Amino acid sequence: MYRAAVRPTNSIAHMLAKRIIPCLDVRDGRVVKGINFEGLRDAGSILEQARFYNNEMADELVFLDISASLESRRTTLEEVLKVSGEVFIPLTVGGGISSVERARDAFLHGADKVSVNTAAVSEPELISRIAEKFGSQAVVVAIDVKKVDGRYIVHTHSGKKPTEYEAVEWAHKVQELGAGEILLTSMDRDGTQEGYDNEILKMISTTVHIPVIASGGAGNLEHLYRGFTDGHADAALAASIFHFRTYSIREAKEYLRERGITVRL
User: Fold this and answer.
1) Homologous superfamily of the 11-258 domain (CATH)
2) Which of 251, 238, 256 is nearest to 192 (CA)?
3) Whose CB has fewer CB within 10 Å in the chain, the N or C terminal residue?
4) 25 is catalytic
5) Catalytic-role residue among 25, 59, 105, 190
């Protein structure tokens, strides 16, 4: 049986290093980046970006397949295998993980963790089944949220469909089902480079016992810092600022360390 991780408290929690995680959104064999989940533009070669982040000492790498068709998924798994052979940091793979079998495929192609989103909302017990088979530490639940009439509503299908869940409620539910980590993306902030939505980030990070990754909106190094201090995130995910070399991972970590954030260098 799985056993959900419990966040250490007091001095131990303070000593845990915060993680910086670049994200590769992949479509048709290329890395892409959009704004508010729309208007995708090319952001380079998958392998070149993966090698860059491996050499830059990123703490982990997230690989999200945003292609829908089964044929594209097969092609993308081949890319995952290539990436896993080039990087020596933990690799999370998401997009189309709709069954234990698909999770197994991702692990067989080199993933260390899988990220589930739409399928988890449709069939919450999928989280438990993957966790029981491969361990909670291997299950990341991605939660895409959008503010609607003052409420943070979970969305699925690449942000196109609102669900019945409010973000905090869903975060607690996925924790109970055995998720080992939450990847929380603000759709309102995604690609805007205006900073993370630290309001919802804090609401979830301070009330669950599993790590929360901040995502959506990082535009400068101050935003990363605020995600950790104001949003209480355990990790910060970013794409645009790293893909287009506005900052390097090392620059980000040195900035954070100078401001008192514990990072691995």
Assistant:
1) Aldolase class I (3.20.20.70)
2) 238
3) N
4) yes
5) 25
- pLDDT < 70 stretches in the chain: 1-15, 34-41, 68-72, 74-75
CA angle in degrees (0–180, nearest 5) for 33-118-178: 115
H or E element at residue 198: helix 198-205
Q: Are 232 and 207 in contact (CB under 8 A)?
A: no
The secondary structure of 106-134 as a DSSP string is: HHHTT-SEEEE-HHHHH-THHHHHHHHHH
Structure tokens at 131: 């966790």
Three-state DSSP class for residue 249: helix
pLDDT (tens digit, 9 = 90+) per residue, 133-170? 999 999 999 999 999 999 999 998 877 889 999 999 99
Domain residue limits, the chain: 11-258
- Residue 38 CB partners (closer than 8 Å, separation 6+): none
Q: Which of 59, 65, 105, 144 is catalytic?
A: 144
